[in-house]
Amino acid sequence: MNTDERYLHLLSNTYPTVADAASEIINLEAILNLPKGTEHFLADLHGEHEAFIHVLKNASGNIKRKVGEIFGNTLREAEKKELCTLIYYPEQKLELIKAQENDLDDWYRITIHQLVRVCRDVSSKYTRSKVRKSLPEEFSYIIEELLHERSDDQDKAAYVAVIVDTIISTGRADDFIVAISNVIQRLAIDQLHILGDIYDRGPGAHIIMDTLRQYHSWDIQWGNHDILWMGAAVGNDACICNVLRLSLRYANLATLEEGYGINLVPLATFALETYGDDPCTEFMPRLLKDTSLDEKTLQLTAKMHKAISVMQLKVEAEIFHRRPEWQMEDRCLLEAIDFSDNTCTIDGKKYALKDNNFPTLHSSLTTHHSSLTPDERELMQKLHHSFRVSEKLRKHIRTILSHGCMYNICNQNLLFHASVPLNDDGSLKEVEILGKKYSGRALMEYIGQLIRAAFQNDTPADLKAYAKDYFLYLWCGKDSPLFDKSKMATFERYFLSDKETFHEEKGAYFRLRNSAEVCDRILDAFGVQPTAYSQTPTASPRHIINGHVPVHAGSGENPIKAGGRLMVIDGGFSEAYHTETGIAGYTLIYHSRGFQLVQHEPFTSTQDAILRGTDIKSTTQIVEMSTHRMLVADTDKGAELRAQISDLKDLLYAYRHGIIKEKRS
User: What is the pTM of this model?
Assistant: First the structure.
């Protein structure tokens, strides 16, 4: 017996008798032999809440596939489509059906039996206990009975038929259909992994967060846009300005105003007063396909966009000067402007300005180019206050903190959003933070600690101030694992004509990530151990999975790199990327048979899906298939269960040899 006796005494409180401990061992051994649950990986959602929610509801096409397998040629394609839409959107679809169906009771009877068959299929890989926990309380007993009794069993056919008829006759059919549809959705995805960037560009990041707060099992690896909003929530003024600038750039104010109650009136007032005569041509928002603004609103948005952009550059400069060890003072480009000839000097070379109207710089020439004017300072305080008092934003950021980290290792897969900083030779790059150097796993872990320190009340004041500033470095710092480029060319893109200045040199990770040797080195550094289940000769038994850089699938780029060791699943969920990538995102699915990559076409709308049964058109690519059907025993959960079984066997030994007494009632 190796287990600590004190621990066994604690364990005996949960399993007080030999029978209890033995029963649990039997239960856990059985669970080890169930098929592995299905994991879904999504990245770079960027506020596209309708597409995201639909992908959750249809399990990236998995429910549609199961309906096809179950009913085959016994249902017409139109009927299968109707059934799928009902599962995805039961409340809305029921309203349409009830308005059209002549014999509603007959429809209820047929449909309930169909839904039970689908539910039985998606629940087959779980224990009865786990399925029971996913059932709504009001229908738990009924659904459980229907799942485990078959209407083709002659002895039970009448029993099943009476249950269904009684559901209908008591007026509970609608509620039952909604309940079992939700159970199907829930059981179709066992674990959801979000590889960063819930925020920015799209209109519904707050809706995605509300959805995730109710979701049964998920985790997130923080992305650069998530970090930006986290920094804004903790009071980093540069992050606040960046959040506002990106929202105005895409004329997307719904998340700010409707989602989090951020008051933009002071910014609008300041912009009109300061840039009222400025056409702000370079700051006209990028309108997405469903966005239309009248000329007055368009002009106001452009002026607000310019106002906050200039303020952002000033506030960033304050932090860069305060943290010279970051070596980013060369990004204080407002200070490099020469108003005598309207140029900006970068790396010793002069570039002409395409926009030289800087009223808040001219008025501050006696102090410093990058100093906020008194009016800007007052506006910044108001914006800062608005972000800090948003209770819903605080709630959502707490959720991201509690479910998230910089990286995750799950079932031999290393998950992170963007990169691991590397040297040009592919070795792990050491990054200095507060006088100490970190690389690889240690770097990711320390950054995670630093992020959490910014939110904790007991953090020493100097460390908390640094941690708060560090959100800006994570957003745009050269050696940030969430950015990893030579610079962020915000100033250049807005104010200079020479496009050579726009170039942002990607870090070594992005240049070398197609190398199997480099990926293996990273996996080794993070302690990701291989397993031997793959039957594909070139496939890797361990993987890096990340997003951040859109895969240009339309031009032939392959998201599977480094001989299968790396999977990049940012395919452009955001509408802003659709023309660039040629698709509308990926879902990576890891089920008991192996990996499948699902490539999505753009989603029309929820309304269209409900009315016409339109689904996201998806193409599935087999990435890897395993030599055997993977079981829970092959997963991280399996390792946990084996450890529990070992402890329980030690407890049995202790009971049987009198080391610990049974607690008989």
Answer: 0.90
